[in-house]
Amino acid sequence: MNRTATGVGLGFRRELLSELENVNRAAIDFFELAPENWAGIGGRYARDLRKYTERYPFVLHGLSLSIGSQDPLDTTLLKQIRAFMAEHRIERYTEHLSWCSHEGHLYDLLPIPCTGEAVAWVSGRIRQAQDILGRQIGIENASYYFSPPGAEMKEEEFISAVVEASDCLLHLDVNNVYVNSQNFGFDPKSYLRALPLNKTCYIHVAGHYVESDGFLVDTHGAAVIDPVWDLLDFTYAELGEAAGLIPTCLERDFNFPPLQELIAEMDIIRSKQNPYLSPNVRQRA
What we know:
The protein has ten helices and twelve strands. It has helices spanning 17-20, 35-38, 43-53, 75-88, 116-133, 155-166, 174-184, 188-194, 226-239, 259-273, and strands at 8-11, 30-33, 58-61, 92-96, 99-101, 105-110, 138-140, 169-173, 200-206, 209-210, 216-217, 248-251. It has an eight-stranded parallel beta barrel.
């Protein structure tokens, strides 16, 4: 089996395991999971995981590396991830361009100041992580709810500088771009055009929650809305032929509907991705 994730994927969640037993194999091209939630487990869940990693490609999306933190880089975690990837023959690992620890985990993904000093600090930690893992990693543009003071550049410029300085890849979260653009009043299309899209290795699309005052919260607990679908269309068009090669994952972390509703959303992604696939691998819309 080809271990490279392509096409359209879904988060691998314990809440979905019973329904996944009966899903059509062609409905899901790959799965994503957080290694912190699965590495080192035993018993039934370990057997369930092995059953699926033997049948599907997987992507790892980390939650706690805290790449922007001042704390020492968690090399123990990275070595565990490297072993987990080897055990299950997983090729891709991505993390958030954020920080979530200070002398212990804070359980929130916090924004990094967009400064030249931060570019040097973060890119050095990414290079260290890549050396330990023996591969390039993808760094995701994160949602945020306040802007750190002292910015010397726009966030898209900061991301571009980090990707270039670290020689890493870009994990593009389309919903995060939309959420941040609405909360902070910038043009999401101009933002996307300014990113190093040629380094994109992975794409997320998700739903979010709208507060009573109109503020958006990136929850991954609702269906994708039309403006985010439109932004995915725009992203694929900007990527051109490369869009057919980049795996796109539907994120859903709670408020799970019946699996067929998630598959219907995945089919929307598939229909948008299909025009960019070569004819011999084009899948159903």
